[in-house]
Amino acid sequence: MITKEMEKQMVWGKFPALTMSGGKLADFGKALAYRVWVHHKDGGDDKYYEYETLEKAQKAKKRLEKNPKYMVVENPIALVWDKKFKKFREVIV
After folding, report:
1. Is the residue at 14 inside a domain?
2. Residue 78 domain flag
3. Structural domains in the chain (count)
4. Is 79 domain-assigned?
5. What stretch of H or E contains 59?
6. Deepest of 28, 34, 88, 90, by most Cβ within 10 A of its Cβ?
7. Is the model's pLDDT at 1 over the cut of 80?
8. Percentage of residues in the chain with pLDDT exceeding 70?
9. Is residue 64 in a domain?
10. Distance of alpha carbon 57 from the chain centroid
11. Confidence label for 31 from pLDDT (cuts 50, 70 and 90)
């Protein structure tokens, strides 16, 4: 559930790309989304794809690994709400 506190940090109804990082999903509870970061072979900007479930993110990772324009496709990570710091955070699954 998205709270008003979370909404203040969202951009056009989307989770922010820039977040805190570190920790484990077990430390924060439920994931709000899952991200797969990709790094281009030609040195282009890194970017991520966002998914509602871990299963969708894992399937997407396998599909993205076949794309020749990506040098690295990272394992899915979870986007959570850090209640202590009142910020979004990316954590390992």
Report:
1. no
2. yes
3. 1
4. yes
5. helix 54-65
6. 34
7. no
8. 100
9. yes
10. 10
11. very high
